[in-house]
Amino acid sequence: MNTIKYISHNEEETKKIANSLAKLLQKGDIIILSGDLGAGKTKFTEGILSFFGLEDEISSPTFNIVNEYKTNNINLYHFDIYRLEDIDEFYEIGGEEYFEKGICIIEWGELLNPILPKDYILIKIEPVENNINSRLFTIQSHGSKFDNYLKILEKEVLI
Question: Angle formed by the axes of helices 41-51 and 11-22, to 10°?
Fold first, then answer.
């Protein structure tokens, strides 16, 4: 597992980090976003979607569980599983079937640890003490597939 860290000072920097990651993403990639309410998970997702020209379409999938976005090249699936009681509910909506169909961005994805493939990216978002707008991003590759993504991301993101 490789790890890199960034501090974002505002929403624009958060979107920049996400946009840099989005350039690397491919069908079958899974991003798990972890953080308290209001941490910036949806803003980060906005940054990914903007890379694919979908910045005007984002909405939090809190009530739908998943929002599907289609581009000419790839499908993106934005999950918010905060309201799910357990993994069985994820199975009931056919959640694991999305893993190979496109790029999956899953807010509150820690719940799915037992069923995640061995390769995924975990992004923990935490507030920075004494700065209401800053966030610490801890980006970890699980499995070896994403180690190279992190090496590229580390060189590209200069905030």
Answer: 50
Q: What is the largest CA-CA distance in the chain?
A: 43
Q: Which domain holds residue 132?
A: 2-156
SS (HEC) of 1-27: CEEEEEEECCHHHHHHHHHHHHCCCCC
What whole-number distance in Å separates Cα of residue 25 and Cα of residue 120?
11
Backbone phi, then psi, for 81, in 5-degree steps?
-105, 25
What CATH number should be reported for the domain holding residue 57? 3.40.50.300
Show the DSSP H helices in the chain as ranges.
11-22, 41-51, 87-92, 147-156
Rounded Cα distance between 83 and 69, Å, is: 21
Report the number of distinct structural domains present in the chain.
1
Condensed to tens digits (0 to 9), the pLDDT of residues 58-115 reads 665 556 788 899 988 899 999 988 888 889 999 888 888 999 999 999 999 988 999 9
